[in-house]
Each structure stands twice: as structure tokens, then as C-alpha cells.
């Protein structure tokens, strides 16, 4: 980003600066050297990571004191996602019968993170069930950035590939922004390309793809008959993957949106004003029952593995929300697992199908 100093701008426009106001000068020799405006070295301010308070005790202490029975409607993301995936499979079969082609999805995976491997395996299985071709290219944790970019460029030029997904997060030595910028806009089925995000942010413009998890959250609200227009919505977390795009989508549906992050003062008080709470921090049991207004709708995007020898994989997943407490206050809530996760995969299939429809001019 280019930051022009105020004195340079003054010389270019040929105006005298009188305190903070512009006045026309009759002589160029009388131009003031004072600053036009006082601003920090970067108007974008500091790029600080959101580091939430330690939550190890929250895992142990959640839901120990309240014996009130649960009253919330459980929003079954798996059931809704299965319905969507069934419709997608029907359209894929119709495309194959009509034009002899099916959608294709390529996945780039770097490293062997347990959660990423699980996500990719689930996505490949979902593609198989829907009749969508899938291809996975996996790189070691210490791979070179150029290798990832080369694979991405190859998929960009492959006409049988209609969607490309770079599984995030990437190892720290890789420049995530630079890699995603290589991705061809019309194959960005994750919706993270700057142009897709920019068009999502601007009224009157439409992105080619909406990011999958936020899109799934909105689908859950709509299909559960939750009114969004005119409601107060609080989004907890501001990541590019979920927090930012879901706040933009909620605004497009005419909610009044507040974003809470790690630097927010009194987040509980702000959350208690919300009719709709969407939380995506990855901090287990961050949102307690006393964070919620009675009757609020809660969408929990967070997933956090907790060791549990009684489970098949040796661990179980919990969300950002203390489910047992929240379900006694909220009117509707998504479980973890079985809430937002299945919808994310369904939206990925939907975006890939839409991309193939555009490529083959298929309706």
C-alpha cells in the first residue's frame, strides 16, 4: 500500500493549509509545509492476531451448575445438508445425461494435520456420493511455495476441474495470500478470492461464489424459518474464512450486525443484545449461557477436539458454545458436531456444481 505524506499531497494540489482546512492560495511560494491531516503510518492500523483468553478451565467447568431442562430447538445440520446433497446429485446426473460431463473438484492439501485430513476425506466422500469427480494433491509440511503454486496453476488450466480448494490453514512458511491470489476466480469455490470477497462486501454486486461455511450458516437460518431482517446479530470472531463473510451476508439479509473479537470490551454484554449469535473462534466453551438473551438463535461454527477414550477416535468435538447451558436459554441452536460442519461440505458441492453449470452453459 502506498501512503502519501500530507506535505506531498499539499504540494500536488497547490492549496494552502490553514490548521485543518484548505484555502485557495494566490501564490505558490506561500504554500504551507504543515500536515493536512494527522493519521497513523498505516490507515489500516495494526494487523494483530485475535488471541482469546485461556479456556482450559472452561472445558471442565461448563454446565456444572444449571439443572434447568433444555428447551432449544436443535437445528439438525446433517439432515438439512443431506437434503441439499440429494438435490445436487440429481442435477449432476442430469448434467451427465445431457452434456456427458460432470463437475470436477481439485483439493490441495499441505501437511498432515489431523483435522485437515479429516475434512478433506469427508469432502472427497461427499463428492463421490454426489457423482462429482475429485482429485487430491498432497504436499509434505515443509514443501516449497512454488510447488503449491505450480499445482494450483495446473488445475487452473484443466477444463475438467471446475472448483479448486486449498485446504486451510497452511503452514506458516507459506504465504496464504499469495497462493490464493493465483487461484482462478471462476474456480474459487471456497469464495476466498479477494474479488469474490470484495463483491460480497459491496451492495449491488454479486460474488461468483459465497464462502461455504457462511453460506451454510445462512441456509440453516433460512431453512429453520429464523427471521433475519431487522434483527440484531452478533458475530463472534472476525476471520476471513467465517467471521468477516458471515457478517457481510447477515447485512445483505438486513440484520444489524455487531462483530465481537478478542479486543472487544464486555463481549458478554454485547452478545446478550443479540437475536442471532454466530460464533467462530475455535475457543471451546467461550460462549456461556449467561452470554445469551433468552430466545436467541445460536449458530456454533467452532470445533475443538477434546480427548475422550470412550470415543472411537479417542477424542470428541465441542464448539465455541457451552451447549448444555446455551440450550436452556436459546430458542434454537446448532450442535457440534452435526450442525454447521455438514452444511459446509454441502455448500462446497453446490458451489462446484454452479461452476460446472457456468462452464457448460447448463441450466
Automatic annotation (TrEMBL):
GO terms for cellular component: cytosol. Keywords: Hydrolase, Multifunctional enzyme, NADP, One-carbon metabolism, Oxidoreductase, Photorespiration. Pathway: One-carbon metabolism; tetrahydrofolate interconversion. GO terms for biological process: photorespiration; tetrahydrofolate interconversion. Residues 211-359 form the Tetrahydrofolate dehydrogenase/cyclohydrolase NAD(P)-binding domain. InterPro entries: Aminoacid_DH-like_N_sf, NAD(P)-bd_dom_sf, THF_DH/CycHdrlase, THF_DH/CycHdrlase_cat_dom, THF_DH/CycHdrlase_CS, THF_DH/CycHdrlase_NAD-bd_dom. The keyword NADP applies. It comes from the Eukaryota. It catalyses: (6R)-5,10-methylene-5,6,7,8-tetrahydrofolate + NADP(+) = (6R)-5,10-methenyltetrahydrofolate + NADPH. One of its GO terms (molecular function) is methylenetetrahydrofolate dehydrogenase (NADP+) activity. The keyword Glycosyltransferase does not apply. Residues 75-190 form the Tetrahydrofolate dehydrogenase/cyclohydrolase catalytic domain. Homodimer. Catalyzes the oxidation of 5,10-methylenetetrahydrofolate to 5,10-methenyltetrahydrofolate and then the hydrolysis of 5,10-methenyltetrahydrofolate to 10-formyltetrahydrofolate. Belongs to the tetrahydrofolate dehydrogenase/cyclohydrolase family. This is Methenyltetrahydrofolate cyclohydrolase.
